[in-house]
TrEMBL record, chains A, B:
Transmembrane segments: none annotated. This is LacI family DNA-binding transcriptional regulator. InterPro entries: HTH_LacI, LacI/GalR-like_sensor, Lambda_DNA-bd_dom_sf, Peripla_BP_I. It comes from the Bacteria. Residues 5-59 form the HTH lacI-type domain. GO terms for molecular function: DNA binding. SUPFAM superfamilies: lambda repressor-like DNA-binding domains, Periplasmic binding protein-like I. Keywords: DNA-binding, Transcription, Transcription regulation. The lineage of its organism: Bacteria, Pseudomonadati, Bacteroidota, Flavobacteriia, Flavobacteriales. Gene3D superfamilies: 3.40.50.2300, lambda repressor-like DNA-binding domains.
DNA sequence: AAAAATTCCGCAAACGTTTTCGTGTTTATA
DNA sequence: TATAAACACGAAAACGTTTGCGGAATTTTT
């Protein structure tokens, strides 16, 4: 790579000082018009751009936001990043993306790398492992130093920082109510292992709905899927039973789509024999047949709000108190729950 | 945010010079063990980390890779980023992601921002607008300065830089051949507007296959979809005709999934009445019914190779010549082309 | 006891920028 | 003609780090 042109080189070219060049390029009245013009012409010709690192160091500000997410090949997370990027860009920030790959160690090391001065603030969604081992020392250290930090989606409640979450309880509640309204009583829940916060919150909404609708809770209808094992086989055990449920609420799109596929394999008609709803973030639900009714999550909005909270923090326009913003999901009704 | 601890502060604490502190922390033999230990203890206690900006400025190296893609809410691009991130991380680099949103202006400004010293190299996939207006001045400027640059997927051939592309011609060729093999003759092509390179390359493969299989080319079977208009209506015109095609080759997943949906609406059986293949990058094809045969694109591998080329460039371990790596897509056969 | 070697540390430059303050020269004012 | 003002520019510090070199003090060698 060719060495970039600097103020010093321009200064040498004209036999003036660095400060003169700097001022000339900023159209300072301190510099004569003649000098100004020739310096600007020269700089323009060589496409001079101030070195960003030098500026960042001097101004003690990078205008970069660090984002750490568990994975990026995931419609929900990429949608959130899109929201973050959009808002951040409007405000003159760039985005540095790091992946924890659900690993605690990677999350810790990402945080360590990003907080060495290269970003002004951090947006994080917790790795699965972190949620599992409940070790938050790396975040507590940040908080102790008042480092601008916003958690989204997968958060830890007692950490003193801004948070943006989906109303998972409400979403599951709405979805389960909908299933009851179309006449279903034996509603199975396909959820995650307990330590995944969103999974247990959605379970909470599901239970709340059953109680409200005077439907007894049948623990045998609650299936905790293990993501590390074969999905298909696990979900098969939900449907290939003597007396299958008449509805399924799945906490994500993949579970729902698999359930749909398996139900059809068993010859059940949808939604009459069995209705299915999934939490969604992607496009799968739209293209299954029948298309799946879904709880949609507004990832873009979430990203924007997350970025907004963070930038307010960075620029000290935030209130002293930490905020927790809750985004309500929508129920998008499609044919998998549409009884004629 | 609390001010971070610096060498200077540690130096003041012990009444020694900054260089002494720096050396002590690096276990230099120039510093007495006593001084070394107390400085290290103090630094450790306050969790000292060298300021990355200062290091970057001094070393003239950021260890950051800039990535500019048209959009991120897209399975293919997020998979590529995943590959880039994985490889870059192994090599000690971080990744800064910017979105052009298919806009020429945004692409130009992203490049301008990223090349002001904040990244060591750039990975780009061209915005749609850039492909349209064929203006590559911003890249030519980079190339003139020998700035490390790698283009992937949506590339411009005559730019003098490394490139990684999918063998789109070969992929479409394979796919069309497969359709012929299962007995189809009236194969419609759902492609993009001409200026999208991948669209026209896939068209090329399609045509090549027809020629090879002695099937006459019927221009009326080639549909150029406009992404800015309603997909559903456009694709409807392909299938709701007097004499619909007996197969469809779609240049992306969404076109294919829509075609499938519409074909079913028209009461056609798949694959007997009409077989469908799509280029894919996402999960939709797996969950449609029947599942769609797809040309799969190996985005992760693409990302890794792209990052590898770039880092070799940055670290001068690359050969003088620019490389063009071609990744062959696979044909994943599913029920939409499986004739019993 | 003198010379040489070793130990321990500080100075200063370098990376590239901005900005305050100072200074010498020219021009305008009294 | 002396003084004040205006003009045009430079020096230097600051952001935080690394590192070659020099030097004082101590220790070892001859």
């Amino acid at each position: 790579m060719k060495p970039r042109i600097t103020l010093k080189k321009i200064a040498n070219e004209f036999g003036v000082s660095i400060s003169t060049v700097s001022k000339a390029l900023k159209d300072s009245h301190e510099i004569s018009e003649e000098t100004r013009e020739k310096i600007k012409a020269f700089a323009g010709f060589y496409n001079y751009k101030p070195n960003s690192l030098a500026l960042q160091l001097r101004n003690q500000k990078t205008s970069v936001i660090g984002v750490i997410i568990p994975e990026i090949v995931h419609h929900f997370f990429s949608t959130v990043i899109n929201g973050i990027e959009t808002y951040a860009n409007e405000k003159g920030y760039n985005v540095m993306v790091c992946l924890s790959n659900e690993s605690y160690d990677k999350e810790v090391s990402n945080i360590s790398v990003l907080t060495n001065g290269s970003v002004d603030g951090l947006i994080v969604s917790l790795a699965r492992e972190t949620q599992q081992n409940q070790n938050f020392k790396h975040f507590e250290a940040l908080i102790k130093d008042d480092f601008p930090l916003v958690l989204f989606d997968r958060v830890k409640d007692d950490l003193a920082c801004d948070k943006v979450i989906i109303d998972d309880v409400g979403g599951a509640y709405k979805a389960a109510n909908h299933l009851v309204e179309i006449g279903k009583r034996r509603i199975a829940l396909l959820t995650t292992q307990d330590y995944i916060t969103v999974g247990s919150l959605r379970k909470e909404g599901y239970l709340k709905s059953l109680v409200k609708n005077d439907i007894g809770i049948d623990e045998s209808l609650i299936y905790k899927i293990d993501d590390k094992q074969d999905l298909y086989e696990q979900i098969k055990k939900v449907i290939f039973v003597k007396n299958p449920p008449d509805a399924i609420l799945a906490v994500n799109e993949i579970y729902a789509a698999n359930a749909l596929k398996i139900a059809k394999e068993r010859g059940l008609t949808i939604p009459n024999d069995i209705a299915i709803i999934g939490f969604t973030s992607g496009l799968i639900s739209e293209f299954t047949s029948p298309p799946l009714t879904s709880v949609v999550q507004h990832g873009f909005l979430m990203g924007k709000q997350t970025a907004e909270l963070l930038i307010n923090r960075i620029e000290h326009t935030a209130s002293k108190e930490y905020q927790k913003e809750v985004i309500s999901p929508n129920l998008k009704i499609r044919q998998s729950t549409l009884i004629k």
